[in-house]
Description:
- The chain has a single domain (17-285), classed as 2-Layer Sandwich (Muramoyl-pentapeptide Carboxypeptidase, domain 2).
- It has seven helices and seven strands; from the N terminus they run H-E-E-E-H-E-H-H-E-H-H-E-E-H.
- It has helices at residues 56-60, 113-127, 142-159, 165-173, 229-235, 244-259, 277-285; strands at 75-77, 84-85, 110-112, 131-137, 199-206, 263-264, 271-273.
- The strands form two sheets. A five-stranded mixed β-sheet has the order 2-4-5-7-6, sandwiched between helices. It has a two-stranded antiparallel sheet with strand order 1-3.
- Strand 6 and strand 7 form a beta hairpin.
- The termini are far apart.
Amino acid sequence: MQxxxxxQVVLGRPVSADNYDARGHFCSVYxxxxxxxxxxxxxxxxxxxxxxxxxxxxRNAIQVDTNDPRSQEPLVEVRELGINGDNxxxxxxxxxxxxxxxxxxxxxxxxxEGAATRLALADDRLKAFGLRLFVFDGYRPIATQEGLWxxxxxxxxxxxxxxxxxxxxxxTQKIVADPRSFDPEHPNRNPPPHATGGAVDLTLTDxxxxxLDLGTPFDDSTSIAATAFFEMELEKGRDREVFDxxxxxxxxxxxxxxxxGFTNYSNEWWHYDFGNSMHVLSLKxxxxxxxxxxxxxxxxxxxxxxxxxxxxxxx
Length: 315
């Protein structure tokens, strides 16, 4: 049975194992109506704020304070802190919708030290509820950003031949930060969030590593991927029972990350920021502006990455 996503969202247990990728991550819009039981966690009853998606120009206007000592924090491999993960973009053929490694992708999962420490704290707190974090992506080289930009640009261009370049650019920017504005001569002016080492893409799993249902696959480009999508469905009077599992899981992930200082990019349930310009803008939108109004994580490409300890080849 294929759900008619234009009129309803029927979310629950995937029909068969064929709907999973090689790691077991759900990647289909085919569902049974019988849902799985929600995870018992206090955050599952706490609504996610419904925010207007951030404006790119507002993010680009935020400065990086290179005098802040945190701006020089090194990149660390998150798996060496006990966090589970696998770089989605470095996979060869088990990473739909790409089905190939993205240009420039690295196997390592790197974050700034301060962000990684906070992530480990969130993961540790989730363990008490039989849950874990699973990381898909952290620091991202500019070459990888360019590869992702081109992928989604081509996807929108092919699917919508009547669109102007401005329309394609607008939709692509909802999914991928535009790498064309990056200036290697001035790397701390408008670096893409992932290029700062302060952005992370992740999901929830149970204690065994089996992924929980968050409503869409990672890097889904539909409106259902918006973090508060199911909150908006509730506001429309939709029956919570048909998407209760996904709603609860998104709330658990959202508040687990917010509790340790991260903010979420509202168009993507999997994307969280700390210390970069998107983080500063998101705090302002939440009514929690920083006193300085400046980010402390700028471009991380010039930082020396740690030596690998068995977590994949170096950057």
